[in-house]
Q: What sequence folds into this?
């Protein structure tokens, strides 16, 4: 029994030239997520269910080694407060056997008022009338020993903070406590990494942040795309030079699950998924890219599931920074982040320093800016908005709700005068004059040279 819904527990110059050519031919795009009625993927989470990177990936440890490991290697489903969700091997599909004393440790993950089933998510009505979430029929729970966001089995991610105190961020290499094992039969329900049952040998699933979801990837770990036009009409559709090329299948390949080999008119044996031909995009330069998404109306990235995004947010292609988040009216969205000089660099990279949700939560809605504060405005959410996926809500001092993405409150900047401007990216506020023993507030107390900066938010 696979309890996690087939989701486990626990030549660059030429390519760049092709990408530039594609952008010249088709033009840069500002687009919302849904672009097609032909190829579709299920939403990964219903209202009130969130996504959290686990353990060290929350970003409590800011020493150089730990910071370099931050990423999205393990993502769990969580409730609206960020508490990890679990499943139990002793349950039955559509039925919870955890009752009485069991529920003192394992509390049913209850659905918010108004929440409805979506995709593989369903709601079980318990004996007391409570509405409990289930994923592909398996009931979900939170664990009473989890006290912090993204804890697993009572093991707080704060233990990865490397300072002299648990949870304190810094460069000192304090020991990290070993995991306390979970009770037998229980395990966190992960969105990523995903298993690859019923897949061809050279195709798997990965989280591609630029594509805001789980995506089919090929043998080079690069994103795959589907063509939505008529079979054998791809070349006529994309023009010359065509930046898409077919994912080839062995000549003797047989169908596997939803994957079927297709004999093209040009003699190539091509993999198809759900009846749509699969392709690579030559403008994808790394395994994290999804540069072909939104470039042409007949091609889109091959998502297995997509993550929630508010109606007021779009993804915009930026020649400087790649894909970034923007408000629907074209204003770049920013996050306020902190930086410790002991934690390594990364600002010269396309995405800059990777996000650390715990740092974003600590900074919250107080940017602590010394100047130009009146030019920054919170990106507000409607009163009826609720947490979902990587999107959370912070309540401001005036009672208004502010959108937060991957732990960071989002902002707009008055200095962006035109749609598409990114004038505040890497705008630094550095604290140099720190006397020994002086504590600097950068969202977390720190006793050294530190900084706050503004960064364009990326998917």
A:
């Amino acid at each position: 029994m696979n309890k996690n819904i087939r989701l486990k527990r626990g030549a660059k110059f030429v390519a760049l030239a092709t990408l530039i050519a594609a952008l010249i031919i088709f033009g840069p795009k500002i687009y919302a997520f849904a672009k097609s009625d032909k190829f579709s993927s299920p939403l990964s989470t219903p209202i009130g269910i969130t996504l959290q990177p686990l353990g060290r990936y929350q970003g409590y440890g800011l020493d150089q080694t730990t910071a370099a490991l931050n990423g999205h290697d393990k993502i769990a489903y969580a409730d609206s407060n960020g508490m990890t969700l679990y499943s139990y091997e002793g349950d039955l599909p559509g039925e919870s056997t955890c009752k009485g004393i069991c529920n003192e440790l394992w509390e049913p993950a209850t659905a918010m008022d108004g929440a409805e089933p979506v995709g593989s998510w369903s709601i079980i009505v318990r004996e007391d009338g409570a509405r409990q979430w289930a994923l592909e029929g398996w009931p979900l729970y939170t664990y009473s020993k989890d006290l912090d966001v993204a804890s697993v089995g009572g093991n707080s991610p704060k233990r990865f903070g490397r300072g002299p105190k648990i949870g304190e961020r810094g460069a000192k290499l304090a020991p990290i406590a070993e995991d306390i094992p979970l009770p037998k039969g229980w395990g966190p329900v992960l969105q990523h990494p995903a298993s690859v049952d019923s897949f061809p040998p050279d195709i798997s699933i990965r989280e591609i942040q630029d594509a805001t979801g789980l995506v089919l990837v090929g043998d080079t770990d690069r994103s795959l795309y589907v063509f939505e036009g008529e079979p054998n009409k791809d070349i006529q559709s994309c023009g010359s030079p065509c930046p898409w090329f077919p994912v080839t299948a062995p000549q003797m390949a047989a169908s596997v699950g939803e994957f079927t080999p297709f004999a093209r008119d040009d003699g190539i044996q091509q993999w198809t998924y759900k009846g749509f031909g699969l392709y690579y995009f030559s403008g994808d330069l790394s395994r994290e890219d999804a540069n072909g998404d939104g470039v042409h109306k007949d091609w889109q990235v091959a998502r297995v599931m997509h993550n929630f995004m508010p109606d007021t947010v779009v993804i915009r292609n930026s020649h400087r920074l790649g894909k970034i988040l923007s408000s629907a009216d074209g204003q770049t969205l920013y996050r306020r982040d902190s930086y410790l000089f002991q934690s390594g660099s990364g600002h010269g990279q396309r995405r800059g320093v990777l996000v650390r949700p715990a740092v974003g939560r600590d900074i919250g809605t107080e940017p602590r800016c010394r100047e130009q504060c009146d030019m920054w405005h919170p990106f507000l959410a409607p009163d009826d908005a609720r947490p979902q996926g990587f999107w959370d809500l912070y309540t401001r001092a005036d009672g208004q709700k502010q959108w937060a993405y991957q732990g960071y409150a989002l902002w707009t900047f008055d200095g962006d005068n035109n749609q598409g401007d990114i004038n505040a990216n890497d705008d630094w506020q550095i604290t140099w004059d720190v006397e020994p023993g002086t504590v600097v507030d950068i969202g977390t107390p720190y006793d050294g040279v530190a900084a706050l900066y503004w960064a364009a938010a990326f998917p």
Residues 313-456 form one domain. The chain has three domains: 11-40+208-306, 50-193, 313-456. Confidence is low (pLDDT under 50) at residues 1-36. The first helix runs from residue 12 to 26.
